[in-house]
Design brief:
Distance between the termini of chain A: 30 Å
Protein name (chains A, B): Flavin reductase family protein
Strand content of chain A: 35-45%
Oligomer: homodimer
GO molecular function (chains A, B): oxidoreductase activity
CATH topology of chain A: Pnp Oxidase, Chain A
Structural class of chain A: alpha+beta
Cofactor (chains A, B): FMN
Enzyme class (chains A, B): oxidoreductase
Largest interface: A-B, 55 and 55 residues
Helix content of chain A: 10-25%
Keywords (chains A, B): Flavoprotein, Oxidoreductase
Order of helices and strands of chain A: EEEEEHEHHEEEHEEEEE
Chain lengths: 196, 196
């Protein structure tokens, strides 16, 4: 773990996901690790922080989440655009060396069994809240966030700093095919007494 | 309805929401209309298109959605930043003239009873899929998209054109308080054969 990766207080964890970035979902079960891309991840609650993520029945990662009851949601950056596209389009079923081909390096965080993708801007370790009807009918999974971390070069003191960080740190927001938008510039609707 | 508002084919409706914008939720029931802001809305399925949205128990809009079984999810633009912040912070319970104060104008679309907020970039008319456990336990609502429209000045031919449209059309992505980011620039991970 490099020196830039800092814990984020759980009560501010929702801010890592609030702007709707495309994420990577990682999990490990019985010695198998996988990473997939997901545009359909969303905050669900503040305290304890929860989130939703849609995991298609065709994905190996879904089996690992169901088997282990744990997963990590992390935010890839512009620098990881091709990696994100590759893990979203290659299958561990068909390509056992998928992660290597996609250029994914996995790292560990203390107290979490699921693997973390190196080089992301933020990570949310989650415990699956089993909801069999949602999972079967909608491919919809709910996680409680048990730990959060961010790279202090782009998120620190509870705030994103996209506008002052290297542009390669910006989050990416998938539209369709290989097409994404980066996050843009800050705008504020806050009056002077509302500044957070 | 102005000439720029064009229907979006249902199979491409997910693209309106895929990049994770903050949305406005509108509904009407028994003559009462309301609009609220929601950062926690997310695509859920392609065909038929579905989405999730989190509606807190304190909101009047939630009662209208539960009562009518219908709602509209729409994307406010940079031009509507203050409007978005206002409808997200004023309550119809406390201020019967909330919509007027926030500068909201409502328009109608053929075949949909729920009201649409004028000036947005895109609209998704939804039928509530009742899931009482999700609604009670998580404030999580599921809608099936029954119609979609976009302003052709920023979304046409199935694609966003944020980069060539007036910057005032960009989507806004809430972080916390009155702080948002706009959507940024396009980036592509697609090979030449993957162009959509």
């Amino acid at each position: 773990m490099n020196e830039h990766i800092q814990p984020v207080p759980l009560e501010k964890a929702y801010r890592l996901l609030n702007h709707g970035p495309t994420v990577l979902v990682s999990a490990r079960h019985e010695g198998v690790e996988n990473v997939m891309a997901a545009a359909w991840a969303c905050a669900l609650d503040f305290a304890p922080p929860k989130l939703t993520v849609v995991l298609d029945k065709s994905t190996r990662t879904r089996l690992l989440v169901e088997g282990s009851g744990e997963f990590v949601i992390q935010l890839p950056t512009v620098r990881q655009l091709r990696l994100t596209h590759e893990v979203g389009n290659r299958s561990l079923h068909a390509e056992p060396d998928k992660l290597e081909r996609a250029g994914v390096s996995l790292i560990r965080m203390d107290g979490v069994d699921a693997p973390f993708v190196e080089g992301c801007s933020a990570w949310l370790a989650c415990r699956l809240i089993p909801e069999p009807h949602n999972q079967q009918a909608y491919d919809l999974f709910i996680g409680e966030v048990t730990g959060a971390w961010a790279d202090a070069r782009v998120f620190r003191d509870g705030h994103w700093h996209f506008e002052s960080a290297d542009p390669a740190w910006r989050s990416i927001h998938h539209i369709a095919g290989g097409h994404f938008y980066t996050i843009g510039e800050p705008v504020s609707a806050a009056g002077p007494r509302e500044e957070a």
